[in-house]
Write a structure and sequence with these properties.
Helices cover about 40% and strands about 25% of the residues. By secondary structure, the chain is of the alpha/beta class. The protein has 3 domains: about 5-80, Arc Repressor Mutant, subunit A, CATH 1.10.10; about 90-155 and about 260-290, Periplasmic binding protein-like II (D-Maltodextrin-Binding Protein, domain 2); about 160-255, D-Maltodextrin-Binding Protein, domain 2 (3-Layer(aba) Sandwich), CATH 3.40.190.10. The termini are far apart. β1 and β2 form a beta hairpin. It has 10 helices and 10 strands.
Length: about 290
Amino acid sequence: MNWDDARIFLAVARSGQILGAAKTLNLNHATVARRLTALEVALGSKLFTRKTNGSELSGEGERFLVHAERMESAMLAASESAGADSAIEGTVRVGAPDGFGVAFLAPRLGELTERHKGLRVELVPVPRAFSLSRREADIAVTLERPREGRLVARKLTDYRLGLYAAQSYLDRKGVPASASDLAHHSLVGYVEDLLYTASLDYTAEFLKGWRSTLAVSSAMGQTEAVRAGAGIGILHAFMASRDAGLVPILPQHIVTRSYWTVVHEDLRSIRRVALVAEFLAEIVGRDRTIF
């Protein structure tokens, strides 16, 4: 079997579109479609159901995906072995929650690319889960340790969340003396039906029946809203404690969550991926006190 055809299959499977795969591979749309058809003919199977809005894996396609990913892993391992004595080169994509990704990782990743001139790091700091099996990211920073799949997890750190408000808000509405007083304040929270993990559902740990008057679907957005005086919010301490415009409220009330790095088992031995994962552990260890 031609590895290039399997590579094209994987790109279409991951993007869900022939056009999207063509852009990823820097190939002509017609070439991708033709090679995909050739692969289906060679296998005697219909790998995709092609629709107007994309291409969906068939049952045969789902089964072939397992074999194609193993081929990909073997090719990566072979390439890594051949270049064992060379400098670190290539791209590593890191998926992370937006607060951790923007406020903590983004200012520090330049140190890594300065050390390794041939390394390119892609940071995707968005509030969502990443599929490592579909190569949406090479490394994912998660809020929970995965329980399924061929994934290798490493705990980075625990982190704290607490209540904060802008001084301008407190001047207008006063400072709550107890958690029950929060019910009489404007509250900034998250959009509940857009939470991608149960770890992010923590308002009840501060106030049962918490009702957000302003809900924002990202940690960075919540921080900005609170800073602007919209109300009291539950913010990441490593972001809020360094901001002179934010005042801690009821500091005895905190919740603790954790960050993990997760890598697909097939990628853990790839030098550039292992290097970036080690760097994440290094910088978190260096600044652990802020969490």
